[in-house]
Amino acid sequence: MKNRSVVFLAGLTLVAVGSAYFLPRLMAGPRQTNPASALIAPQATPQLVAKQFKFTEGPAVDKAGNVFFTDQPNNKIWKYSTDGKLSVFLEQAGRANGLYFDQQGNLLACADEDNQLWSINAQGQATVLLQDVQGHRLNGPNDLWISPKTEGIYFTDPYYQRTYWTRTAPDAGLGGQKVYYLAKGQRQPVVVDDQLQKPNGIIGTPDGKQLYVADIDANKTYRYQIGPEGKLSNRQLFVEQGSDGMTIDKQGNIYLTGKGVTVYSPAGQQLTHIAIPAEWTGNVCFGGQDRRTLFITASEAVYTLAMRVQGVQ
């Protein structure tokens, strides 16, 4: 028995030594990786496409992966094709700001020259979808997103004084700066949030169940649940950061703009910040045939960034 006890104790000693050797590694957990490396292609940096604009905004991608964006002060919508070529898609573009493609391939635009929503077909012919709310002039539709479930349009309507307007104040009868929902086939929208200071960037999830809206003046971004008939509920603070424009990838990460591009996980954890050599980054979307090119509108310029992750549209 004595000899067997010695062997047993010796075994414990060896185990203890082994545990002491491995314990720090076990406690450290799995090796941490840089979140940016899971998002951005290896060694990729923002690439300048062109710097010939006055202020770029509203990028949107069509089914082929071409990106359309606006140069609002110059009243043009540009096209950046999948082969890397730039061309003017539409002159006299209604001072378009935010853009988004519907399921039929029409380009919807926040045309704030006359504070309207437009639908533009492939030939560049525009149809006015919305021009007022119960006879009251909109502040200036800024950004929009189309629900894949209902095809209804969510849009933000902040007031930014434009040099090309004759008016110098909002329509008092409108009652403030709000988020609206225009159901498919309807001529009048409904208010889905009237409690934000200045709603701006907007994007929804591809399942049509959640909506993100940035309150740029309050420097906050909120998440909502989308219910029947397009109504919003359960507004929750997503992050303490506002945004001009925004997009989403297939992992559910949210990309906010302003000073560069900041990426947050669906849980609101900051994953990375992408520095852009421009005074202001207005908006962002995923383009290219495989939706792995981040297209960034940044003041007088536009940039691209090769990504590992894909955009949802």
UniProtKB/TrEMBL annotation:
<dbReference type="Pfam" id="PF08450">
    <property type="entry name" value="SGL"/>
</dbReference>
<dbReference type="InterPro" id="IPR051262">
    <property type="entry name" value="SMP-30/CGR1_Lactonase"/>
</dbReference>
<keyword id="KW-0378">Hydrolase</keyword>
<feature type="domain" description="SMP-30/Gluconolactonase/LRE-like region">
    <location>
        <begin position="55"/>
        <end position="299"/>
    </location>
</feature>
<dbReference type="InterPro" id="IPR013658">
    <property type="entry name" value="SGL"/>
</dbReference>
<protein>
    <submittedName>
        <fullName>Gluconolactonase</fullName>
    </submittedName>
</protein>
<dbReference type="InterPro" id="IPR011042">
    <property type="entry name" value="6-blade_b-propeller_TolB-like"/>
</dbReference>
